Amino acid sequence: ELLESGGGSVQAGGSLRLSCSFSGVTDSRYCLAWFRQAPGKEREGVASIDSDGEAKYEEDVEGRFTISEDKAENTLYLQMNSLKPEDSAIYYCAIDLRRTGALDAWGQGTLVTVTS
User: Fold this and answer.
1) pLDDT at 106
2) pLDDT tens string 3-44
3) Quick one: how far is CA 41 from the chain centroid?
4) CA distance 32 to 95
5) Do 15 and 80 meet the contact criterion of CB atoms below 8 Å apart?
6) How many CA atoms lie within 13 A of 113 on its CB side?
7) What are the contacts of 108-111 at 24+ separation with CB within 8 A?
8) Spatial separation of the C-alpha atoms in residues 48 and 50, rounded to whole Å
9) What is the tens place of the pLDDT at every residue in 57-114?
10) What does the alpha-carbon distance between residue 28 and residue 115 come to, in Å, rounded to a whole number?
């Protein structure tokens, strides 16, 4: 189960931190990711982090967003700085429980709105 929080409305240039609490991880090798879907657009990957701590970012957010994991709290974070109106979307967290490349579970999403 994954549960996101932290969405909201912010002015361009501002910051938000999204959180995603997760459970049910039994394998030591897994991958967590953030996706987003804007109105009228397809869902796209934003950032991912694997159980070894290796992070990857979509080009448009690199340098502005930071993905991190608190293993003790089973919580995934996405720190979003220098937000732009085009970052507005519903943000979802997802998990690949055994690093198979297939996502096993999704959160319900949290809305981020960036106003100009």
Assistant:
1) 95
2) 999 999 999 999 999 999 998 787 788 999 999 999 999 999
3) 17
4) 5
5) yes
6) 5
7) 108/3, 108/4, 109/4, 109/37, 110/4, 110/5, 110/6, 110/7, 110/18, 111/7, 111/8
8) 7
9) 999 999 999 999 999 999 999 999 999 999 999 999 999 988 888 999 999 999 999 9
10) 40
**1 pLDDT more than 90:** no
Please report where in the chains the tokens 């109106």 appear, as a residue.
85
Closest by CA to 22, choosing from 49, 42, 58, is 49
**Amino acid identity of 76?**
L
DSSP output for 16-66: EEEEEEE----SS--EEEEEEE-TTS--EEEEEEETT--EEE-TTTBTTEE
Q: What is the pLDDT of residue 24?
A: 78
CA distance linking residue 114 with residue 110, whole number of Å = 13
State both tokens at 26. Answer: 């039994």
C-alpha radius of gyration, the chain, whole number? 13
